[in-house]
Amino acid sequence: MTVSRLREIPGIGVDQLGDRADREGDETLLRLENLDTDLRPPAVALETTRAAIDQDSANSYLPFQGGLTLREAAAAHVGRLAGRHYDPARECVITAGGLNGVLNTLLATVEPGDDVVLVDPVYAGLVNRVRLAGGVPRFVPLTATAAGWTLDPDELAAAVTTRTAVVLMMSPAMPTGSVLGPAHWDALARALDGTSAWLLHDAAMERIRFDGAEPAHPARHEGLAARTITVGSASKELRMIGWRVGWVVGPEAIMGDVNLVGLTNVVCQVGLAQEAVAAALSAPDADADVAWAVDLWRARRNAVLGELAGYPVIPPDGGWSLLVDTAQLGMSPAEASERLFTRGRVAATPMDGWGPSGERYLRFVFANEPVERLGDLRLRVEAAWG
What we know:
This protein is an alpha/beta fold. It is built from twelve helices and 15 strands.
């Protein structure tokens, strides 16, 4: 690397495998490597996007912090789940996707050398952004069980020290589908009390839960409300990946800095997409639309779990993907992925760089293939792995 800030930032692997799968041009190849979905966005979003093409206001930099209609919709959406009111003018900024919001927030809250607490395994893109901002990842291990992933609240709390600037949590998380609850927020509230650290809540998938429970938003906790910054995205729950719209909602004390980073970084969002996201967030049937999608993703998850019965799979409680522990199969994730690709015609991404324990896991994305296409997954896996 020519600059030091990139020396500890590996790639995410998904791009290389996705490019390879695209080059194959093989419709029989199962595409389980990338966090895509074939489920269409809400109809109102499509209609509003088409209308925006003819609107001059949609072809503008202004307002830099995002259109007021979208800020109102995003602030109301987060506020409803968080159980509090956010001022759309002072406590909400629109970003070019959720991860742009994560990076902007880290750059506004982390000094070089500060600790940022994360779980392990975790999305490599989050770890890489922590490092790009100059932060030092401090990992708290998830425990894999036959019933799913668990996180010890006391271990999470113990990771917070005087060096901690941010605790970055996602629930459900990528790539594990692990879910956090009141016990974790209680523990963090105690650990963060008296510190200046922020809780950065990546809420991109918070409603994609398979237990039917409502999201457990940390800002509902009295001890965390004043330090919780929520980053959301239209990409997952609303299936609007290509629109590249996200939002950051949090206390006014920090949002000016987040906005300043945004002005200095990507500058502004996709103008043609903003009214569409606002319409999707605030539609009368918005919750029903998400529930419809979650039902289909749950069925696909169940199909993959059924096909992989007997293999070391950790069931996810939400999200779009699940992990297989290839170390228990006597293979590295890279070897397991290569054999799946060449022998089984399945594209699945190794988790190298996705936290310290990523070196033993292979990810299967179940959001992008219908149940009908997953029916021979076991035969493909057996052909690849024996």
